[in-house]
Specification:
two-stranded antiparallel ribbon, alpha/beta
Amino acid sequence: MMEELCIVTTGGTIDKIYFDDKSDFQVGEPQIGRILEELGVAFRFTVIPIIRKDSLHINDNDRELLHDAIAAQASRHVLVTHGTDSMVATAKVLSRIPDKTIVLTGALNPARFRGSDAEFNIGCAVGAVQSLPPGVYIAMNGRIWDPEHVRKNVDANRFESA
């Protein structure tokens, strides 16, 4: 049974705010806490914002910061919201953390947009983090992926087997 879900946020499309037709944006406040509260989930959670970047701008130093922050948490269940473009690279770094179930998820459309996949992906990730054995996983497009065997297909805008 999950004692408390630790949620670590890094930014990405899930938290983006768009300003005009030219797709100017900034990464806003983490949306996952608001989403889980609105859904009335029956578990305790803590949201820890670590960075606020588009995943194309997440670098190795950011990944090490994320690794260290997650490794330092007492919780064995960790959900990470992350941009989709470099989610797989981050998952591979996090796989060095033992004895935790870590699930990364994000959205292909901002959570603030009607019809966003954010709530669905978060729901899949919450189920996965509670039921899977220790390890690192990616929850996207209604599936749970092993980071070693998945890639983002940019042209099709979805995750698929690598």
